[in-house]
Each structure stands twice: as C-alpha cells, then as structure tokens.
C-alpha cells in the first residue's frame, strides 16, 4: 500500500490550531472564551540584543585600569550615544539603549531592553486548551485550503476573486481600490506590477495557482502573505481549490504563508470560518492508503496542477518514457486515463 502526501482541500471540517509563544509568557484568555483573529491571546518578553564593548582596547589602557575609566555602574540604564567610559579625549559610547549587565577583563556587556511579543488568535473560534505559559489551542469549523508554497506571515480579510477562471493570471489592472484590506484570489500566477499594485492598495493577502521564482525575493519583503496553491511557476489553480475559494467570495478568512518542511510540517493555508451544527470527522494526514476512487492532484509536467480520480493502482511497476520502471496509478483526467508515478501524486482530502 502507498500512503501519498495529503493536501487539505476541505469544504467543512474541524480546524484546530496551536498558538505558541516563542518563549514562556503570560496567557490572556481562558478555556471556553471566544476569540477573534486579531485578538491578543498571549504575550511574552523577548530578550533584547546585546553588545560587548572592548573598553580597554578602545581607550588604550590595561584591563585593570579600564574599570576606573567607566562612568556608569552595573545595572545602570544607558542611552544610545551615551559616554560609558572615558580617558582624556578618548570616549566609548553605547551603541544601543539598554542596561550595563556585566563588566570584566577590559570589556563591558550592554543588553537591550526586552521587546514585547504579542500572540494573536489568528482564527475566529473558541479556546479549547491552555498550554501552561506557552500558548493556547483555538478551534473553529470551516473550510481549509492548503497551498504548496507561501511567503509572509499571517493576516485576515475578506476573500475577493479577481479572475473568472483558474488559468487566468492576476494582472495589475485587475487590482482596484475596492481590493484594499481584502485577500485577493487570482488564477495561474502574477507579475511584478501586480505585486506593486497590491502593496500600494494594502491588500491583506494573495492566493494564486503558481508563483514565478524571480518574484520570491520581492515577495519575502512584502507585509502580507502570498500563497501558491500548486507551486513554483505559472500553473493554473486546480479546479476544486478555485471553486472552493470563489464559492466563499465575500466571506472573512484567515491566511498564513508560513512554510515548514521539517520538525512538524506546516503548509501555507487559507481558513474560512463557517457555521456548522455537525462536522464530518477529519482523517489524520497520511492515514489513508491510495486506492481507486481517491481524488488526487498531479504535481509534475505534463499534467501539473490537474486533478483527477484514481481508476486503479496496478500492483506491478511499469516502464515510463524515461526508461525507468516505477510504481504508479491510473488516473482519470476527464475522458483520458493516464499512468502517473506515485511520487507525482498528492491526495486531496
């Protein structure tokens, strides 16, 4: 049996997200409390940067004598540019605002004040667990679409579709002032002008099928997330994903461009909260073997981005165009059935 990599494209499911602080801190909500995406649910003080200053060398004195040249004491707050040691016309100034926390061997350590990190809920939902001083768990019901590639952090806004079909690229002329504060949906990709226009109008996020590798450096500097549902390159958005997103146009959604490929895989996603009395159970990732009837997405040319249904999973390897013998599946794409190597398939659930 083969357990394919699974991509979540679900019209209704239970969504459970752990919201974790980078360091232990203070939890601001209780179990059972309803939260909103921008609500701060926890906060923590992050240690500030520090600088080591070689006072003795800068003043041209011995380590022992440098202690007598100090003009501040341990524990004193210092300002950027403030003189902390002097000898004659020589001065040593603090490079940052901070506190003098250590000195010795002709050197001093200045540590910046800690910065406050605020953790937001990310979703409309309910707090179902508090993880001591480390974070919380927020749950909701709704639709979930996972992407293949993403940039940026998290955001929240109203979904706005700017194309009529999934193979149409997103262009700058499509993005007008009504897109301000929205998550815009394109088709096969976008260009540099579209990115600039989106930034100018302060959109909250972009979802497209493919993403040109040449745009990655610029996208990483933008203040909003971008998600490519199919991957790198100009690739049409798969029909089930496009249909699911455009069906919910006008609804509020959470978007995350975070990607992590190891130590707990995280994929970029769009979560659309929806009311529901009963929610179908969601299978664990990788828990269902590939079998006839499974909905799959093809991830390599010449069928990249297309979605089909598995017709059969032959037990024996077959020879493909490259000459290699591989295990694969027969996938029905419209009226055509093609043999696809198992490694070129992702299960949609």
Gyration radius (Cα, Å) is: 27 Å
Mean pLDDT: 90
| Amount of beta strand | 35-45%
**CATH evolutionary superfamily of the largest domain:** Phosphohistidine domain
Q: Provide the helix percentage.
A: under 10%
Q: End-to-end distance, in Å? A: 18 Å
- Tally of discrete structural domains: 3
The total strand number stands at 28
CATH class of the largest domain: Alpha Beta
What is the overall silhouette? elongated
For the largest beta-sheet, the strand count, sense and barrel status come to:
11 strands, mixed
The low-confidence parts are none
| Count of runs of 4 or more consecutive helical residues | 5
CATH topology of the largest domain: Glucose Oxidase, domain 1
Structural class: mainly beta
Return the CATH architecture of the largest domain.
Answer: 3-Layer(bba) Sandwich
Task: Explain what you see.
With 349 residues, this protein is mostly beta strands. The chain has three domains: 5-15 and 141-273, Phosphohistidine domain (Glucose Oxidase, domain 1, 3-Layer(bba) Sandwich); 55-113, OB fold (Dihydrolipoamide Acetyltransferase, E2P), CATH 2.40.50; 295-348, no CATH class. 10% of the residues lie in helices and 42% in strands. The protein contains five helices and 28 strands. It has helices at 55-59, 63-69, 192-200, 216-219, 239-247; strands at residues 5-7, 9-20, 26-27, 34-35, 40-46, 50-53, 77-78, 83-87, 90-93, 98-104, 107-112, 115-120, 125-130, 135-146, 149-151, 154-161, 182-185, 205-211, 226-232, 252-256, 269-273, 295-298, 307-312, 318-319, 325-326, 328-333, 336-341, 345-348. The strands form six sheets. Strands 2, 4, 13, 14, 15, 16, 17, 18, 19, 20 and 21 form an eleven-stranded mixed sheet that branches. The protein has a six-stranded mixed sheet with strand order 1-28-22-23-26-27, with no helix packed on it. A four-stranded antiparallel sheet has the order 6-11-10-7. The chain is elongated, with a radius of gyration of 27 Å.
